[in-house]
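User: Can you predict the 3D structure for this chain?
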Amino acid sequence: MSGNIANFQNTMVVSGAMTYTWNFGDGIEGYGPNPAHTYSEPGTYTACLLVWAWNPLTQDTCFADHCELVTIEGTASPCDELEAGFIWTTTPNGTQFSNGTSGTGFSTTWHWTFGDGATSNDAQPFHTYVEPGEYEVCLYAVSIYELSGGNVITCTDSSCAIVVIGGGDPCADFEACFVTNDFGNGTYFFDNCSSNQGNGQFYWTFGDGSTSTLVNAEHHYAQPGTYTVCLYAYYLNCADTTCSTIVVQGSSVPCDALEAGFTWTTTPNGTQFSNTTSGTGFSSTWHWTFGDGTTSNNGQPFHTYAQPGAYEVCLYVTSIYELSGGNVITCTDTVCGVVIIQNGGDPCDDLNACFETVVIDDNSFVFVNCSAPTTNIQYLWAFGDGTTVGGVNADHSYQQPGTYTVCLTAYWGNCVDSTCTTIVVGGGGGCQPFEVDFGYGVQGTAVVFEATASVPVLGVLWYFGDGGEGYGPVVTHLYEPPGPFNVCVAAWYWNDATQDTCWAEHCEWVDPFQNGVGISEDLDDAIRVYPNPARGVISIDGLSSSGDVLIHSPEGRVVLQQRTHATRHVMSVEHLAPAIYSLELRTAQGSLWRRIAIE
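Assistant: Here is the predicted structure, written as structure tokens:
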């Protein structure tokens, strides 16, 4: 061996006229007993020798062959390691270029051409284009390396890419979008149709307290009801939101609708029970236990207790339903209540209407019911301004200041009781509405928040959305990915008139981890990226021109970048951790993206 030249020596011991044919393993053949061959590339090759001779005795040809592996070592020039590369982020103010060159020596210089006649020698330049359009940006890297023995060598490499600068609002084409698919039994699949899915970040809220940060989301609702599903989409400095309302149907089993119930009215002659059961089928039976050892199967029984006291009365309901197809199902339900039988006298003496008043602000009040007994009572509230309402507790807002008489009337069987109180609705002196807002700046994983309020405030409280809290008008908080985070600020001041604090709050979504790599899904069938999943290496076939290939981590960081050449490119990914990566191929014809699983 002499560099990339291999000298082959025939060791055949048979004499006579022989014919020698060599296959050097790189697609080239040779002839003769002892040839020399020059390999164009380093690597391991299978070299084979085929020998044959004419046998006059058998009037036939005799063959013999032999193969061996031949290894051609590559050069150790540091220039082979130098790979120029860069990415960029375009904002309304200009374009930030991030230098991703790898394999540099002890001293490196840079030269950028931005495609509009401007240049820069900065490592991480920021450039503003005057007009929208497509610009070919090139980075030229010159790096100096020290060789063994003290000598130095200067190496160069370059990388070019097409940068598209759009006019107008860069967020105009960014739109959040999803399609709802009902899988039945409370399970839904939400198919994301937003723009810039590949590099966007997404946050789902399903209306039941659950969330997700997946691109497409599947969710199961445990209870029937109406839910508002929202998708929050983020891309670079752009954000958009869309929401949709879904109705989750309940179970169709008729037993869920059966609800036993009853009320009663006690008189000096006995107690009348009124059956209020709902959701019954085509046939129902009843069974009552009155708590004194007696029972009844009537629908609306009348019962006389021999002694005063407290009795637990229970109603057991059995109902039969016809299902679709003609089958039937039997359902049961039970309800119990405590009936008080007085020791003579008026049974209405124990009914006591009662409520407490809670002041919310100048004109709003909550009325809390404290009446006794607490079961089988109906209520009517009168607020003194001509309005009334039913229900156990009540809240009311007055439109005008003044003095009002609020009354609660309680109805229990044939018994009625009422109570009233006077309240004064003021014309002012309460909390005056004010607003609080905040701005923020991102410095890496640190976010600096600053609160502003429409009135002077005494204190500011922060909720950072990741469980952390802060205090004061200006605070700094460190986040860990991924985002976004629902950040809330609350401010307060002291109201001398009410001797209480007045509050205002503001919340908004903050994502310090928006990254600036745009993804344009271009499914060009001419390009083949394989194997997928990959283990060790990735091959790219069908390249019509040179370009750049970049591997993006799940967080959007460029973790590998190489210069490609036409036809085929092979790159090692042995150092990458197992995950789902995005492979970006940049050529003069445009950009192509693929999802690659690395095992």
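The mean pLDDT is 83. The first strand starts at residue 5 and ends at 7.
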